[in-house]
Amino acid sequence: MPRLSMQIPHSLGREEATRRVKEQIPKAQGQVTDFSEQWQSHTLTFHFKAMGFKVGGTLAMEDSAANLDVDLPLAAMMVKGIIEQRVRQELGTVLA
To answer: Are the CB atoms for 36 and 47 separated by under 8 Å?
Structure first.
C-alpha cells in the first residue's frame, strides 16, 4: 500500500501539541466513518473510511514537529497531492 509521510513543524512542545490534536478528534470523527483511535503516550494510531477508502496510519507528536505516516489505498494516489495539501493545512492550523 502506498504511504504518505510528512512532517509538520510546530513550536508548541509535545504536551500541548498532543492536547490540541486530541481536542480535534471529535471534529475528525464527524467527517469520516468507522473511525478508531488508540493513543500510546504521544503517538496516535488511527483507522477510518473516507470516500469508500480504508485509511490508517500514525501521528507521532515530537517537541517541535508532528510526524504523520498514512497508508493510502492505491486508488487514492491520484489525489495524493490534494490530500497532502489538505492535511498540512488542517494540522498546521491546529498546531499554530
So the answer is: yes
Number of domains in the chain: 1
**Closest listed residue to residue 6, CA positions, set 90, 94, 84:** 84
Q: Which of 79, 39, 77 is nearest to 59 (CA)?
A: 39
- Strand order, beta sheet including 43-50: 3-9, 65-71, 53-61, 43-50, 33-40
What range defines the domain where residue 11 resides? 3-94
End-to-end CA distance of the chain: 31
Q: What's 60's domain CATH number?
A: 3.30.530.20
Give pLDDT tens digits for 35-93. 999 999 999 999 999 888 889 999 999 999 999 999 988 888 888 888 899 999 999 99
Report d(CA 88, CA 6) in Å as an integer: 8
